[in-house]
């Protein structure tokens, strides 16, 4: 009996590949408390499923925006110095958000464009956020940013934005029309 402790790592689809000697007749798969013995019988393709005795979490997809659709987000800077928002991914590319900010209420949407990285953790986005001020004026905040969402649900993004006040009796200046924000969040 030939024993080997060769190990392989599966790809994102759970597929693996390794070469075994012709004299090998049995494979033993072990991972933590799971052990599975498989007779080869001259097969070239061997498909197995490892099951555990313990209750496990469901497998994550390759897009954490799909796995964690709800989230809380803290924005620093931006159109009103700070905002606390609840967001929801209605698809892996579109989110809706509502919250409170330094000027009043915030309601909006963001569209995410995947960078096709492994796991789809990174994306560029563009959005339209309406700021309903306590003073009665409206501001459209139009952010463009870079978003990272990890597999544990932690989120981070940076954005540059234009803002358009909907009442025009305020003094015109560059600060009235540009914004920069940093967002920290947690998706669940």
Numbering strands along the chain, what is their spatial order in the largest sheet? 3-4-5-6-7-8-9-10
What is the N-to-C order of secondary-structure elements (H for helix, E for strand)?
A: EEHEEEEEEEE
- Major β-sheet, in short? 8 strands, antiparallel, barrel
Strand tally is 10
**Helicity, as a percent range:** under 10%
Helix/strand-derived category reads mainly beta
The best one-word shape is rod-shaped
Look at the structure and give the CATH class of the largest domain. Mainly Beta
Keywords:
188 residues, mainly beta, Lipocalin, 2 domains, 8-stranded antiparallel beta barrel, two-stranded antiparallel sheet, 1 helix, rod-shaped
Would you spell out the secondary-structure blueprint of this structure?
Layout: E1 26-31, E2 34-39, H1 64-67, E3 70-77, E4 82-91, E5 94-101, E6 104-114, E7 122-133, E8 138-149, E9 154-165, E10 178-187
Task: Report on the architecture of this protein.
The protein contains one helix and ten strands; from the N terminus they run ββαββββββββ. The protein has an eight-stranded antiparallel β-barrel with strand order 3-4-5-6-7-8-9-10. A two-stranded antiparallel sheet has the order 1-2. The protein has one helix at 64-67, and strands at 26-31, 34-39, 70-77, 82-91, 94-101, 104-114, 122-133, 138-149, 154-165, 178-187. 19% of the residues are buried. The longest helix is centred in the middle third of the chain and has 4 residues, at 64-67. The mean pLDDT is 81. A hairpin with a 7-residue loop joins strand 6 (104-114) and strand 7. Helices cover 2% and strands 51% of the residues. The two termini are 49 Å apart. The radius of gyration is 25 Å and the shape is rod-shaped. It has two domains: 1-56, no CATH class; 64-187, Lipocalin (Beta Barrel). It is mainly β and 188 residues long.
